[in-house]
Design a protein that fits this description.
heterotetramer; A mainly alpha (50); B alpha/beta (426); C mainly alpha (274); D alpha/beta (273); B: 426 residues; alpha/beta; 7-stranded mixed β-sheet; 14 helices; globular; D: 273 residues; 2 domains; 4-stranded antiparallel β-sheet; 25% strand
Chain lengths: 50, 426, 274, 273
């Protein structure tokens, strides 16, 4: 029983630690999310800026 | 700004042509995650030699050059530093990292360059009969563990039977150092030892502190470094662990480690093998000859801090060893081998410390061929959060030689067997 | 295509350090103002990064961008060092810390053992929930949010409907910077503001591997799974193997997931378009 | 074609075509050493359906990309509504009221059909960030107006039943239609269609042709399209530019082009399928 209660406490704390991890990961995701298609017309970048 | 000044100072020193100068590299880390600790240490180390150069014209008439090499507390980079510093004929190296020390021991033994690792590195290097080139006076990790337990014994009226002591440690070669000693001590004194490793870097220690909260140990001893220190102290405050029963090794006892926890850290204890603060005559000289001349290695805001004091103390011991080596060799231009002899004949008495402007700052150090680690004395300091200062609350405490000496013999003998060394000093 | 691959955002985390450190730049200002100022600086920084660095690297090999971002991170770290020094600063934006007495008392009554819950963690959870809700609302219901999703989906099409990629990039960097600022404040409150904060990236990596690099729900669920998983593992199995299993566990779990779902829990299927 | 004047002309089916909207003057575009477009000039008039045809690799898509700002020619001028247009980013061109579709479909796969089409109206939305943030007043009214406009387009293109479907799940033909819808949502002055019927079956082609014609008819939208399929182009367009190897080899009504010997030699004789 004690073990179970301790485990419950550990899980709760783990959840909140997870929130802290998620916060950090979230920032990364926002940046990575922009990685979308790379189906630019050939030579697009070269020509589109002069 | 600091960086530029330091770099400038280094280049200026390196540029001076006198080849016969004494070369004592400063393997520092002013960048990276551990910079907060590396900077004050490097500043103290450099400032002490600057003082000797400015005030006394060096040591025995020879100027001391302190080329700085940035290790970023990274073992590979430290080894690279060694490779480049080696060509400059250094007298002694102080890598300020246990990881780098372990990598360098075989190399410097090969190359015949003394290694000075005060308060860190390989503990059994204290045995000079095996580790000819390594010195780790005045105290090592095992001394620290023993002194901590002795302090606890004092607190508990000499009886620890039935008590529980937790060791929270950095899960690395460094953090694991005291385990064996503490196990032996727990047998001797009858306390229960709870080992709680924390994964590097140690930003997340909830599991460990939840366990401490469950198990309610009477004392917690900590071997941590960098961010692990701040988080551990904060977590201890969070679970309302009594701070005066929480004792850190000297690497867990700088201002950096306690400040972030604010008022909650009041009463936290840590070991130290040297004094702290600017209340020593030495600082008057540093002020006149170094700070006022604008020659300080850093921004000058670190003077008197724990790690600055430790850096300066390391420089002091090296300087004394150089002087001794010069005396023995009969010439101011000494070689690394003569430097080793200087270390082995080192005898820094309490009077000498007073003469150097640091009365009662460190315990006397007397080394010999087979004792490279001194007596291992350390004392306990306690944090005063309101004033933001450490105060020394005990005198120097002697470690338990009865336990430690056999352990050191055992470990160094194993190394000697593995490396095919025969004991010297006979 | 260029920019995004390389952006493995070391600079992003440094933003966090950078941001929270501003609080201590000589002047003393109220916490709220400091946070607002920092957010402003973050936007400025996003703009400058885009203008001075990323713009010139458009279309380059990812590895070059990667190197550029690392360089940027070092630069910012150095700048932070010069401006604020490397000492560890206590960060107090008024978030409470320490055990929550209420929860301890209540659980003590229920179970005979008072749970330890850090008040900072409670606040962090609350703030994170609000942040995510705000982000989702922003992405779903605002013009800029729609544009942002559009860019994430297809650059070419986004441009054809009149979306300025640069504006979106600056915006995304700013938002990411703001999220990093919040994360930085949380972690900074815990350990003090210091350069070690950038080491948290070591923990973000398995979370991202698990959740998928491009999924917001993935980041949240991944974070929770790793948080709970590593604590439970340390609690149950840890004592048998000598403890300190957290980092090890996080990476092993992430790797196991990778075997079965290379794109992560919520990641988009990886399709190489040619 | 009846007599062409400054102000326009009347088409064979009797529609009045207006003055020049877009004029391309001596356009030359190179990629490194490769010349994609060589000294081409032509114009697009208000209300007409203008086609660009030519074999693969003739430079048609490059031409469209020049018009939509995705490429910048090394030489020559793009004159829009009488003003020489400086080098612009594609999004700036889009904001001038030039919408386009892509040969290989560029939709936002993760979003629903409705959301995709809504992106076409992003530039019609003026409400500030803050009022949007709190979903209030002008922003809400604006959102509703734009939504209504989008619904009209959905009705017009007969895609009501897939409004909420994520675009990624749609079949090819419908994707093309959604892309057209998104372009229309911007209420463009000039609509650029890059092979709108590529890869479609006959039935789908007929549908698409019908939509293109009724867009032109009902909204008066000027349309410039690229097509591979000769038959379709000849039926749809008012005037045709023929390209081959980056050069213009013919320009005129479908009838004129069809009888142009150079065109027959270079294109019709060789690549007709």
């Amino acid at each position: 029983m004690d073990q179970f209660i301790f485990a419950a406490e550990v899980v709760l704390n783990g959840l909140m630690t997870g929130v802290m991890y998620a916060l950090v990961a979230l920032g990364f995701v926002l940046i990575f999310k922009r990685r979308a298609s790379s189906t630019m017309p050939k030579g697009f970048w070269r020509c589109s800026r002069r | 700004m600091k960086l530029t000044l330091a770099a400038l100072a280094t280049t200026m020193m390196v540029a001076s042509p006198a080849l016969a100068d004494l070369i004592v590299p400063n393997m520092s880390y002013r960048t990276g995650p551990y910079a907060a600790n590396g900077i004050p240490y490097a500043d103290g180390f450099a400032d002490y030699f600057t003082l000797l150069n400015e005030r006394d014209g060096g040591i025995g008439g020879q100027l001391v050059q302190v080329p700085e090499c940035e290790t970023a507390y990274n073992t590979e980079k430290g080894v690279e530093c060694y490779e480049s510093l080696r060509t400059q004929n250094p007298l002694v190296l102080n890598p300020l990292s246990t990881g780098i020390t372990y990598q360098l021991i075989p190399r410097i033994s090969q190359d015949g360059i003394p290694l000075y690792t005060p308060g860190y590195g390989r503990t059994s290097a204290k045995d000079g009969s095996v580790f000819e080139w390594v010195f780790n006076a005045p105290a090592n990790y095992w001394d620290g563990a023993s002194v901590a337990v002795k302090h606890i014994l004092d607190q508990e009226g000499g009886d620890l039977s039935g008590k529980k002591i937790a060791l929270v440690y950095h899960n690395s070669a460094y953090g694991k150092e005291p385990i064996r000693t503490l196990q032996e001590l727990s047998e001797k004194h009858g306390f229960e030892l709870v080992e709680l490793p924390v994964d590097a870097p140690g930003q997340e220690q909830k599991s460990q502190w939840l366990q401490i909260r469950r198990e309610q140990p009477d004392y917690v001893i900590m071997y941590a470094w960098g961010v692990m220190n701040q988080v551990a102290i904060q977590e201890a405050v969070n679970i309302r662990f009594p701070m005066d029963k929480f004792i850190g090794i000297w690497w867990s006892g700088s201002e950096n480690d306690v400040r972030a926890a604010g008022a909650g850290a009041e009463g936290y204890k840590a070991l130290t093998f040297h004094g702290v603060g600017r209340d020593y005559p030495l600082y008057e000289d540093l002020q006149t000859h170094v700070y006022d001349k604008g020659l300080a290695a850093g921004a000058g805001d670190q003077a008197g801090s724990v790690l600055y004091s430790r850096g300066a103390y390391a420089a002091l011991v090296i300087a004394e060893a150089i002087a001794k080596a010069q005396e023995l060799a009969g010439t101011p231009e000494i070689t690394p081998a003569q430097m080793r002899d200087g270390f082995e004949a080192l005898d820094i008495t309490a009077e000498r410390m007073a003469e150097l402007g640091l009365p009662d700052f460190g315990a006397p150090i007397a080394l010999s061929c087979d004792n490279h680690g001194g007596d291992g004395l350390a004392r306990v300091q306690q944090w005063n959060a309101a004033e933001g200062t450490w105060s020394l609350i005990t005198d120097f405490i002697e470690p338990d030689a009865e336990i430690l000496d056999p352990l050191i013999k055992e470990d160094s003998a194993a190394y000697a067997a593995e490396a095919g060394l025969t004991a010297r000093c006979n | 295509m260029g920019i995004q691959n390389g952006q493995v955002p070391f600079a992003h985390l440094i933003n966090a350090t950078f941001g929270t450190s501003l609080h201590h730049f000589g002047w003393t200002v109220p916490a709220v103002l400091a946070v607002a100022l920092t957010a402003l600086i973050m936007v400025l920084l996003a703009f400058l990064i885009e203008k001075l660095v990323l713009q010139h690297l458009v279309g380059q090999e990812p590895i070059i961008l990667f190197m550029a971002t690392i360089g940027l991170a070092y630069f910012l770290e150095g700048l932070g060092d010069v401006m604020w020094g490397a000492d560890i600063k206590a960060l107090d934006v008024g978030l409470p810390q320490g055990i929550s007495d209420g929860i301890e008392a209540v659980t003590g009554q229920w179970f005979g053992y008072g749970f330890f819950i850090d008040r900072l963690d409670l606040w962090a959870t609350l703030i994170a929930a609000m942040l995510v809700a705000a982000l989702v609302a922003f992405a779903q219901y605002t013009k800029q949010g729609r544009a942002m999703r559009a860019v994430a989906d297809d650059h070419q099409a986004a441009m054809s409907v009149g979306i300025s990629l640069r504006f979106i990039w600056v915006m995304v960097w700013s938002i990411a910077g703001f999220v990093a600022l919040v994360a930085g404040i949380m972690w900074g409150t815990k350990s003090g503001v210091q350069f070690s904060l950038s080491l948290i990236a070591l923990k973000a990596l398995p979370v991202l591997m698990l959740g998928g690099f491009t999924s917001i729900p993935g980041a949240i669920v991944g974070g929770l799974i790793i948080g709970v998983g590593e604590k439970l593992f340390e609690f149950t199995i840890g004592p048998m193997v000598g403890g300190a299993t957290e980092n090890w566990f996080a990476y092993v779990l992430a790797l196991i997931f990778l075997v079965f779902r290379p794109q992560g829990l919520f990641g988009e299927r990886i399709i190489e378009r040619v | 074609m009846n007599a062409m004047t400054q102000d326009g002309y009347v088409t064979a089916d009797g529609r009045q075509i207006g003055p020049v909207v877009m004029e391309l003057k001596n356009i030359t575009l190179r990629f490194g050493g490769v010349v994609a477009i060589k000294d081409i000039s032509f114009d697009i008039r208000q209300g007409e359906i203008r086609a660009i045809i030519g074999p693969n690799g003739a430079g048609k898509s490059s031409m469209l990309n020049v018009i939509s700002g995705f490429y910048h020619p090394q030489d020559g001028q793009v004159i829009f509504k009488g003003q020489p247009r400086p080098a612009m980013k594609p999004y700036q061109v889009a904001r001038l009221g030039i919408a386009r579709t892509f040969q290989n479909i560029a939709l936002f796969d993760g979003m629903s059909v409705l959301d995709n089409i809504m992106t076409g109206r992003l530039n019609k939305m003026k409400a500030g960030f803050l009022s949007q943030a709190i979903w209030w007043g002008a922003a809400e009214r604006e959102e509703n107006e734009n939504r209504a406009a989008v619904e009209r387009i959905i009705d017009f293109l007969e895609i009501q039943n897939i409004r909420k479907t994520p675009v990624g799940r749609l079949p090819y033909g419908l994707k093309k239609r959604v892309e057209l819808a998104r372009a229309l949502a911007a209420e463009p002055n000039l609509l650029l269609l890059d092979e709108p019927m590529a890869g479609m079956n006959v039935e789908e082609k007929e549908d698409m042709s019908r939509f293109i014609l009724s867009v032109n008819d009902e909204f008066g939208t000027t349309i410039c399209l690229i097509e591979h399929d000769m038959g379709v182009v000849m039926d749809l367009s008012d005037r045709v530019v023929v390209m081959d190897y980056g050069k213009k080899i013919g320009d005129g009504t479908p009838a004129e082009v069809r009888s142009n010997q150079a065109v027959i030699d270079a294109y019709l004789g060789v690549a007709h399928d």
